Prior knowledge:
By secondary structure, the protein is mostly helical.
Amino acid sequence: MEKYTEFKQISLPKLNNLQPRLESTCLKLMEEAGELAQAIGKFRGMNGEKVDLKEQEVIELISKELLDVAQVAVSMMFVLEEEYAINIKEKVDDHIEKLVKKGYIKLEE
């Protein structure tokens, strides 16, 4: 694979104290995405409630909820790998290639 101008990597662990299934993991992903949306909605004042949190506190909450979403998404990839023989590295490489084609990532020259 070619190098990219900027490439940060976030590694999240495979959870070894759970036995997730595809359906339960999908439901958990939707739950966590809802919690992220709620945190963003409160930060933007979209729900009509008065927010007593400082901006930095809300940003911290958003980052925590976003990592929960990411962890569940990664867990779902592990389920696909283990139960359906999906090659995660191949899928990630395909995803990066798609991002390059769409112009979201520029190759180093």
